[in-house]
Amino acid sequence: MKFKKIIYARKFDGNPKVSDFEVVEYHVADDLKDDEFLYEALYISCDPYLRLLAHTYVVGETSIPGYQLSKVTKSNNRKYPVGSILVLNVGWRSGGISNGSDVLYIRNDLPSNVPLSAGMGIFGMTGLTGYYGVDRVLRPKSGDTLLVSGAAGAIGSVVGQIGKILGCRCIGSCGSEEKIKFVKSIGYDDAFNYKTESVTEALQRLAPEGVDCYFDNVGGDFASQVLSHMKKRGRVAVCGAVSSYNATEPARALIMQPMMFLKSIVMEGFNIFDDIPPHADEMYAVLRKWAEEGKLKQYEYVTEGIESLPSTFIGMLQGKNLGKTVVKI
Ligand code: NAP
User: Fold this and answer.
1) pLDDT (tens digit, 9 = 90+) per residue, 175-219?
2) Whether residues 47 and 87 fall in one domain
3) pLDDT of residue 328
4) 195 contacts 222 by C-beta, under 8 angstroms
5) Among 150, 164, 241, 295, which residue carries the largest CB count within 10 Å?
């Protein structure tokens, strides 16, 4: 069978360019060994961490890594029969053979009121990361003020919804007026455009009493500035630092330690690879229930065709997306 994958063709210099990627065809024999299955990609995820990892890629060799939602089309593996819907860690490729070692999550039982792509969004890495960061790291009390950067993105759109379910007052930061409207439409109480208003002006206006919890998707100076607006014993969940991923110069940021010790702020990093797997099934059950009750929705930015992965990825890093960025294959 013939499939396509995307390889790292030229070294990124700052913002990636479409010409830094190449689409390559490959063949897979469909005679399966014991325990193997053939899968075909349904949706491929575009994630900022793929830019962060680029220093590990080998030009001309590395297939771009990442997650996809796939369907099993032929199987010699009893655990994953034909028709299984799986989240696989196999990178940007349209299909192939697996022995099961690439399976992250089985998503055969998605609620009927969500799109299939939610298997990789609110019920995949995005939803699990957002839920873990709010519920297990920030542990907000009802009535707490929760600030979320990157609020209009994949993780941000989930975190705002979860924050509201848990009774928080949610404030988002994002990069355009359109995004402010979007985040308010999905439940955020308020939002500001970090490109046109400073953190200090915005938080003096929107959270004059201070922020209890900060879910940090962007890092850098934005995150350092937020600490001055936190309440005593505020909590920070460090999820990502997308403001620095395309940087060509070392980033400069305000030294944050004085604010941390003066306000007894607790900051905790976490990641999908190490922290979430032991809790994934139990958290999926909660997310699934919220979705069935109509409290949690998948918001997404979808493009089509494996060839559009590079431009979609570049667009996501530049802020083109509302919600989770996926490519339908
Ligand atoms: P996303 O927010 O859907 O997309 C990236 C967004 O970053 C863009 O839409 C853009 O929105 C924003 N952005 C780009 N440059 C920026 C800058 N200089 N300053 C501030 N914002 C900027 O991506 P996501 O998948 O939800 O990921 C969000 C963060 O979570 C990333 O840092 C990612 O690495 C992290 N993450 C961590 C884990 C983990 O295990 N810890 C798992 C998944 C994701 P604007 O238009 O608003 O600028």
Assistant:
1) 999 999 999 999 999 999 999 999 999 999 999 999 999 999 999
2) yes
3) 98
4) no
5) 150
Question: Is there a domain that residue 182 lies in?
Answer: yes
- State which of 173, 242, 303 you would mutate to test the pocket of ligand 1, scoring each by most atoms of that ligand within 8 A of its C-beta: 242
- Looking at the structure, tell me whether residues 80 and 164 fall in a common domain: no
For the chain, what is the domain count? 2
Q: The domain containing residue 314 runs over which residues?
A: 2-112+299-328
Buried b (16+ CB within 10 A) or exposed e, 6-21: bbbbeebeeebeeebb
Cβ of 323 closer than 6 Å to ligand 1, yes or no, is no
Q: Is the CB of 47 under 6 A from ligand 1?
A: yes
Ligand 1, atom nearest to 133 Cα: 41
> How many CA atoms does the CB half-sphere of 300 hold within 13 Å?
27
Q: Domain containing 211 — which CATH number?
A: 3.40.50.720
Check whether residue 133 and residue 27 sit in a common domain.
Answer: no
H/E stretch holding 227 reads: helix 220-227
The percent of residues above 70 in pLDDT, for the chain, comes to 100
The CA 292 to ligand 1 mean position distance, Å, reads 27
Task: Decide: residue 207, CB within 10 A, 0-12 exposed, 13-18 middle, 19+ buried.
Answer: buried
Distance, CA of 170 to CA of 263 (rounded, Å) = 21
Residue 103, domain CATH: 3.90.180.10
Q: How far is the CA of 150 from the centre of ligand 1 (A)?
A: 6
Look at ligand 1, atom 35, and give the residue with the nearest C-alpha: 240
Phi, psi of 64 (to 5 degrees): -65, 125
Record the pTM. Answer: 0.97
* Main-chain phi, psi angles of 301, to 5 degrees: -115, 110
Report how far residue 214's alpha carbon sits from residue 235's, in angstroms, rounded to the nearest whole number: 6
Say if 120 falls within a structural domain: no
C-alpha separations of 316 from 125, 251, 281, 287, 324 in Å? 17, 21, 28, 25, 9
Q: Record the tokens describing residue 207, joined without a space.
A: 């959270």
> Buried b vs exposed e over 38-57: b needs ≥16 C-beta within 10 Å?
bbbbbbbbbbbbbbeebeeb
